[in-house]
Amino acid sequence: MQHAALTIDPAFRIAEVDPRLYGSFVEHMGRCVYTGIYEPGHATADGDGFRGDVAELVRELNPPILRYPGGNFVSGYTWEDGIGPRENRPARLDLAWRSVETNQVGVDEFVKWARQVGSEPMMAVNLGTRGIDAAVNLVEYTNLPGGTYWSDLRRANGTSEPHGIKLWCLGNELDGPWQIGHKTAAEYARLAAETARAMRRVDPSIELVACGSSHQRMPTFGTWEATVLSETYDLVDYVSLHSYYEQRGDDRGSFLASGTNMDRFIESVIATCDHVRGVGQHKKRVNLAFDEWNVWYQKRFVGSDNLDVATHPRLIEDEYSVVDAVVVGSLLISLLRHADRVKIACLAQLVNVIAPIRSEPDGPVWRQTTFHPYALTSRHGRGVVLRVEPIGPTYETSWMGEVPVVDATAVHDEETGVVTLFAVNRDQHEPVALDIDIRSLPSLALGAHVALFDEDPDATNTVDQPDRVTPTRLADVKRADGTITAVLPALSWNMIQLRTAP
Length: 502
Ligand code: AHR
Known about the structure:
- By secondary structure, the chain is an alpha/beta fold.
- It contains ten helices and 26 strands.
- It folds into two domains: 2-10 and 385-500, Golgi alpha-mannosidase II (Immunoglobulin-like, Sandwich); 18-380, TIM Barrel (Alpha-Beta Barrel).
- It has an eight-stranded parallel beta barrel, surrounded by six helices. A seven-stranded antiparallel sheet has the order 2-16-19-20-26-22-23, with helices on one face. A four-stranded mixed sheet has the order 1-21-25-24, with no helix packed on it.
- α5 packs parallel to α6 (223-232) and α6 (223-232) crosses α8.
- The site of alpha-L-arabinofuranose has 11 residues, from loops.
- Belongs to the glycosyl hydrolase 51 family.
- Homohexamer; trimer of dimers.
């Protein structure tokens, strides 16, 4: 059997995990909102029309923040259409997804629902077709107690207390030519700076995210971030990163190395942020908001230009396999490894649209394969991330060059003493025995080893077989001379919990 080894030492701290690393994203796109979280006629719907069965799985997933309402959608959105009596709200053509937006869910309903499922909203403003005026009015509507036009309107619409939304995105992917209101870096930088300044005048306590590149293959990647941050550095708190991964052809080895690509992407953006910091002699650090990430089979999508206009159509409802779940698990390892700079991340999206949760109109709800590594990492990956450096076999990929077979990170909960190790075995055929050196925490013993793997790596969960793929508890761990050894099955995501022996 192949062997890998790593050492756990509580002295090698990277940073405390910001719980917002486990955020997700609700866009008015396809069936994420309509027949996803919201379906008034559904048997489980609450008095506001939100599905109880979907809400239950969202609570289980427990995302602390939910980015809303887009995505590309926000760049053509008129937020005022989604407030006030529902019967008066207009049906509008959404140009991003060529869909009819009925506006039956708007900011008031969304914020109320998000809090009911235990999340905080992360609100995006439209810097595509709109600008400063619409953005400051929205902050006034949501965050001021009353006594002004927009805050009084919120009260009249039935929400007496301010929503108090703390986290705001200054637009979405404005570097992309597909974006409604696409801009050059200089155009976006000016607009983002002035909008940030004005929004902070309404509520100085808010945190702001400037748009970084839509993805790292954009021709302007790097220079876009540098231009935007040069103009906005002292006005924003985070710069955004977006990245979607998919298997190309039959090159599974490269796809499994997606986490290595994410590592490099994050490190490039950190370098740009710190370059601008140095040039401008700024004191503070700008941190990273990886506010869209996931596996997304874009090659299966017809493209937004080719869509027929429809009301909440089925868009990009990717069905995820075991391999996809292992990749999602490894992307979470990459995010955790950079917990000193990545403070916010959002799995895109929450329901139906490239999502861990699927629902059928008038029908059931189920967990995709990707739900499991995400939910378990979110639940147990809290505390201080420790630097671990696995030593072991490597393999060659056409995309990322030589990558380690085993990728891992560890999180130390200093209150309970529990150390949780997250590890993937990217070898598609062979298990790997992982030796975990715990000499600096000698009282640790195995708590549990849970793994996601399957003899069919293409297996998925479906409406008919909702639990075809679930995590398995393994009992293969041995302990000897300050080392705990666990066997990571071929092509697997693993969570190994070590607790102080009683
Ligand atoms: O999540 C789907 C889309 O991907 C979002 O609307 C956009 O921001 C990104 O390109």
